[in-house]
Specification:
Layout lengths: L2 E5 L4 E6 L4 H18 L4 H17 L1 H12 L3 H26 L2 E2 L6 E8 L2 E5 L7 H12 L3 E5 L5 H14 L6 E3 L7 H6 L3 E7 L2 H13 L3 E5 L4 E5 L5 H13 L9 E7 H16 L19 H16 L3 E4 L14 E4 L6 H4 L6 E7 L2 H8 L7 E5 L3 H8 L6 E4 L18 E2 L4 H5 L3 E8 L2
Helix pairs in contact: 2-4, 2-6, 3-4, 3-6, 4-5, 9-10
Length: 455
């Protein structure tokens, strides 16, 4: 099957790209193996110069790159350009910090000298999703390549133009040919790539099923994996929260990228004493949201990326309403060309409903009302996911105490959950394992080697 680039706002097919045939794929694997032998010998200082050039290239071409994301997966153009800017920021971060992260660490032992060295592994395969077509890739690529590895990208099949643009960015910045390559291959071909002796480790951002499959295949080959999977992040509003600020933030936390984000707030857990006030405030925010043409800079919410995602949201909302959920606003597909769905709030949600049990990957907020803080934490952890959590309260002492009880990879107090190159990112439970970003991310795909010397 060819890769098809289709505009979700108009349903127009933009371009088609053929999949790599077996000989082409093998050529790319061979190139990756050979270029690694040279790239690993390049100094961190030289890599830094190239990574800085890549950051500059991204900034200079953010409109062109952002437009590709907008037409391929529907992200509003302002958000798409901001995504490219964030990628540039991350390239700068690793250009400026990789040498410090990778410097050998001396350890005092019974040896004359002993230290821990950090060395690259080789070719790392990245299997990436469409929802942040640049950011998901660069938060892997920048640290991985600065560490001396080389990268292969199997991107989502609906964003081939973005995938090829990323490879082109590395070439234009001056990286040696083959340091970063895009593989236009079918999902069924991924297994053979993982099994290739060229590939040393795999990172995946995607669904639980995809994570299980990749981890199983890699495990059989005894190859390391990092998995960043789904999330059903809680947005917890306690009795002493700043309700108006929380409601304004809730709009962004739920509706950014049309709700198609693993770390978007999805379950709004409200202490009953402030529940109605918060629902009213959040409903007002949702109703003011501008939904429309993603190429219009005023648009806040564009279409969903594909018909499958839209139909899944329709199913989850309809089944939950049948089970007693109440529509506060929205609740319907928008009658216009494209995969548009109304910003939606469902209240009276309980644990038997799809919007409670499943990850909701669209612009739908599920409201759960609890009696007190203890019941809130119980609801927070009543999920197979554990990616991020947003906790709202003016009592910071209590907030820190509650943060220790929340089963997630991150807790943001009085703010929305977001990824930041300075901080580690990842989850636990069915949200995956391993960490991206910060010093932890760059050390996921290196050989942490003990060197012990006796005179």
């Amino acid at each position: 099957m060819p890769y098809i680039s289709k505009n979700p706002a108009t349903m127009e097919v933009l371009k088609e790209f053929p999949e790599l045939i077996e000989t082409e794929l093998q050529q790319k694997l061979n190139l990756s193996a050979s270029v690694f032998e040279r790239w690993k010998m390049v100094s961190v200082a030289e890599r830094t110069v190239l990574m800085k050039k890549l950051a500059e290239y991204l900034r200079q071409n953010k409109k062109e790159l952002g437009t590709l994301a907008t037409v391929e997966m529907g992200k509003p153009i302002t958000a798409a350009m901001a995504e490219v800017e964030k990628c540039a920021l991350t390239c700068d971060f690793y250009a400026e910090n990789a040498e410090r992260f990778l410097t050998s660490e001396s350890v005092s032992t019974d040896a004359t000298e002993s230290y821990v060295a950090f060395e690259p592994l080789g070719t790392i395969l990245a299997v990436m999703p469409w929802n942040f077509p640049y950011w998901q890739v660069f938060r892997f690529a920048a640290p991985t390549i600065m560490a001396g590895n080389v990268g292969l990208l199997k991107h989502a099949s609906n964003v081939p133009q973005c995938a090829l643009a990323i490879e082109r960015a590395f070439v234009e910045a001056g990286f040696p040919n083959g340091v970063f390559q895009t593989l236009l291959i079918n999902s069924s071909t991924v297994a053979s790539v993982i099994k290739s002796s060229v590939v040393k480790a795999v990172t995946l951002t995607g669904s639980e099923n995809a994570g299980r499959s990749v981890a199983s295949i890699a495990g059989q080959q005894i190859k390391k994996t990092v998995l960043e999977l789904g999330g059903s992040d809680p947005f917890i509003v306690l009795a002493d929260a700043d309700i108006q600020l929380a409601a304004k933030t809730a709009k962004i936390a739920r509706l950014q990228n049309a709700g198609q984000s693993c770390i978007a707030a999805k379950r709004f857990i409200l202490v009953e004493s402030v529940a109605q006030e918060f629902i009213q405030a959040m409903t007002a925010e949702f109703k003011q949201t501008i939904v429309g043409d993603p190429m219009d800079e005023k648009t806040e919410v564009g279409p969903m990326a594909n018909e499958q995602g839209l139909q899944e949201i329709v199913r989850q909302v309809e089944e939950s309403v049948k089970l007693g959920a109440k529509i506060e606003t929205g609740g319907h597909q928008i009658d216009r060309p494209g995969y548009f769905y109304e910003p939606t709030i469902l209240s009276n949600v309980n644990s038997i409903m799809p919007v409670y049990q499943e990850e909701v990957f669209g612009p739908v907020a599920a409201v759960i009302i609890v009696k007190d803080d203890q019941e809130a934490i119980k609801a927070v952890n009543d999920t197979p996911f554990g990616l991020g959590a947003s906790l709202w309260t003016k009592d910071l002492v209590k907030a820190k105490q509650l943060a220790t009880l929340i089963e997630s990879g991150s807790v943001f107090i009085n703010g929305l959950v977001k990824s930041d190159p300075r901080l580690p990112f990842g989850g636990l439970k069915n949200s995956g394992y391993g960490r991206e970003l910060s010093s932890f991310g760059i050390r996921e795909f290196i050989n942490i080697k003990t060197v012990w010397i006796k005179k």
